[in-house]
Specification:
By secondary structure, the protein is an alpha/beta fold. The chain has helices spanning 17-33, 52-65, 86-100, 115-128, 186-196, 199-210, 239-260, 285-299, 305-317, 340-349, 358-361, 364-373, and strands spanning 7-8, 11-12, 43-47, 68-73, 105-109, 132-137, 143-145, 152-154, 164-170, 175-181, 214-224, 265-270, 331-332. It contains 12 helices and 13 strands. The strands form 4 sheets. A 7-stranded parallel beta sheet has the order 5-4-3-6-11-12-13, sandwiched between helices. The protein binds 1,4-dihydronicotinamide adenine dinucleotide.
């Protein structure tokens, strides 16, 4: 079939297999160009491995330090007349490249929140790899069925306490408008924490530890975001921010547990705001990202997921470097984003943006390009008019 982008609001319902493969190849090339990461991970489990920061972590581990990788993700295969989701194609491309390079790569497509998935992965790790030295927790999900209670929790992106009014952009139509989001109920706050908080990360670490598959000195990392004040009501101080506080709580607990055995470490890395399937669903944030991209590209400091993850591995986690923590005990990969000169420009541009000047004052075109790239569109060297086989088997 000929596959074209079909954008519906903040999602694209199609994905291009060759384009996704080219996107993965770009990420691999970036990591290879950066050279080997000394003392990097050797055997890694990545939970949320098929897109965004998780995929970039997997690429950095495999192609930066030759790690064997196991990846867990939740992607939909192709159906009659319908391509698969991008993470499906990304993973096939990654796995082919890893195996061609002589690296172990095994994939688990299903619900990471379930006990069944944890048991399946633990058994496979035990059989294939013995012990792993890195666990990356990079899930972003709108829902979680709790493995013990069976309750289905749905996350919401809302402010807490008071309504929030600010500008937002319809990235597809290019229309800037004002949006008011009512505060979350207590139940919505609890549900969002159940989905995006740290409990599931702890359950994964419990399962891995109990099975004896964590190597001495093992590292575990999960990702968070803080961002500028303009987004705090919807992010840092909103439902998702409270869930991230819980993720930080889990990091401290996991870290203490690993250290109680005399080894290991767990921490949070605060990453840069980037276009991913998860971030495009947050109100207000895509407008901020469009402004941020304009400023950071002009200053030559723009990074995408793969640049961020290679930097995390090469300058913080490995290569003989110690982790550099902020006052809250977090690693800050958002340091360039949060530089005062960059944020001062955001504050200057923000109030001026309208539908009419959106293209001039922001990098909305860059946002759209990056968004389509997530689905394998707009990659150089791909003939998007050509027939392509959408039905690819998972490897
Ligand atoms: P993403 O949407 O690109 O990736 C999410 C991953 O989770 C995918 O691999 C998906 O298959 C997997 N997943 C979702 N539900 C699952 C389930 N039930 N079982 C198994 N796998 C499942 O998201 P992104 O943006 O890479 O987010 C990853 C982490 O990074 C999140 O914690 C997010 O808050 C954080 N982060 C994102 C930033 C951004 O600007 N995008 C900035 C800073 C942190």
């Amino acid at each position: 079939m000929v596959i074209k982008p079909k954008v519906r609001g903040f999602v694209c319902v199609t994905a291009h297999p060759a384009g996704c493969a080219a996107h993965v190849a770009e990420q691999i090339a970036h990591v290879r160009a950066g050279g080997p990461i000394k003392d990097g991970p050797k055997k890694a489990l990545i939970i949320g491995a098929s897109t965004g920061y998780g995929l970039a972590s997997r690429v950095a581990a495999a192609f930066g330090s030759g790690a064997a990788t196991a990846g867990v993700f939740f992607e939909r295969p192709s159906e009659e007349g319908r391509p698969a989701t991008p993470g499906w194609y990304n993973t096939i491309a990654f796995t082919k490249a890893a195996r061609e390079a002589g690296l172990y790569a095994r994939n688990f497509n299903g619900d990471a929140f379930s006990d069944a998935m944890k048991q399946e992965v633990v058994a496979a790790l035990k059989a294939d790899l013995g012990q792993i030295d890195l666990v990356v927790y990079s899930l972003a999900s709108p829902r979680r069925q709790h493995p013990r209670t069976g309750a289905v929790h749905k996350s919401v992106l809302k402010p807490v306490g008071v309504p929030y009014t600010n500008k937002t952009v319809d990235t597809d139509k290019g229309i800037v408008s004002e949006i008011t989001i009512g505060p979350a109920t207590d139940a919505e706050i609890a549900d969002t924490t159940a989905v995006m908080g740290g409990e599931d990360w702890e359950l994964w670490m419990d399962a891995l530890e109990q099975a004896g598959v964590l190597a001495p000195g093992a590292t575990s990392v999960a990702y968070s975001y803080i961002g500028p004040e303009v987004t705090w009501p919807i992010y840092k101080n909103g439902t998702i921010g409270l869930a991230k506080n819980d993720l930080e709580r889990a990091a401290r607990r996991i870290d203490a547990r690993l250290k109680a055995h005399g080894y290991g470490r767990a921490f949070i890395s605060v990453n840069k705001a980037l276009v991913t399937q998860a971030s495009s669903a947050i109100p207000v944030v895509p407008l901020y990202i469009s402004i941020l991209y304009k400023i950071m590209k002009a200053k030559g400091t723009h990074e995408d997921c793969i640049e961020q993850m290679r930097r995390l591995f090469a300058t913080q986690m490995y290569n003989g470097n110690p982790l550099n923590f902020d006052d809250g005990g977090r690693v800050r990969l958002d340091d360039w984003e949060m530089r005062p000169d960059i944020q001062a420009e955001v504050v200057k541009i923000w109030p001026q943006v309208t539908t009419e000047n959106l293209a001039a004052l922001t990098n909305i075109t860059g946002y759209r390009t990056e968004f389509l790239k997530l689905f394998g569109f707009g990659l150089p060297g791909i003939d998007y008019e050509a027939e392509i086989e959408p039905h690819l088997a998972m490897l």
